[in-house]
Amino acid sequence: MPLTPTPQPTPAPATPPPAALPPVERRIELFTDVPATELHEMATRLSRLNELGIPLKATEALDHLTDDLAERTGFLYAMVNAFAEEQTFLGLHNPPPDAGYPLVGRTMSRSDGYCPEVIRGKLGLPLFDVAASPRFQSNPVVDAIGIQSYFGVPVIDAATDLALLTVCVVDPEPRSLADAARLLRLVHAAGRQAADILQIITTPAP
To answer: In 3D, which of 43, 42, 51, 58 has the Cα closest to residue 91?
Structure first.
């Protein structure tokens, strides 16, 4: 008697692979009225920082520089600030934790504070009394830590003619017009020191 073949179970349909998630787009904060130019300059700046071997993270030598700058100027905060997809403080001096003042982190939005103005204009910005300048008297970071004075300068890379960094000091107390030139000179000197530490060949900033 012939054998009847045993029916084989029908294989279950293969489970389709999970659908790929769409890439998460990081929102870049802009601070100029010409987005295409700003984004191009940001990409060039990032490429140049990478070419120079400058990582977007805390740098001990620049922390020491900002400690010294804060002491020389008498300001509570001092920064060496790299501009890329966000602002990164390669060097940072905060007030003592028990002094009762807000502490600044290592990064913040590209559009906050006064350094975007320095990056855009490639000029030193001496704001000895923020309240006296309607254009600059309000800003998210300014309001958060109560900034009343700011002195900042660009570090301009000769190869690209872009400001790669800013060096600045900020404080919750205004300063006098009579002392503004001295303070700006100190910040300019710190800018030159930062360029030397990072081996950036610079174009002098006005």
So the answer is: 58
The string of DSSP letters for 32-100 reads SS-HHHHHHHHHHHHHHHHHTT--SS--HHHHHHHHHHHHHHT-SEEEEEEESSSEEEEEEE---GGGS
pLDDT tens figures, 32-83? 665 788 889 989 999 999 999 999 999 999 999 999 999 999 999 999 999 9
CA distance 161 to 203: 7
The whole-angstrom separation of Cα 5 and Cα 167 is 84
- Residues in a beta bridge with 126: 151
Tally of CA atoms within 13 A in the half-sphere of 47 that contains its CB = 9
Buried b (16+ CB within 10 A) or exposed e, 90-100: bbbbbbeeeee
* Between 15 and 77, the higher pLDDT residue: 77
- The answer to whether 84 and 46 are in contact (CB under 8 A) is yes
> What's the whole-model pTM score?
0.82
SS3 101: coil
Q: What single letter denotes the amino acid at residue 193? A: Q
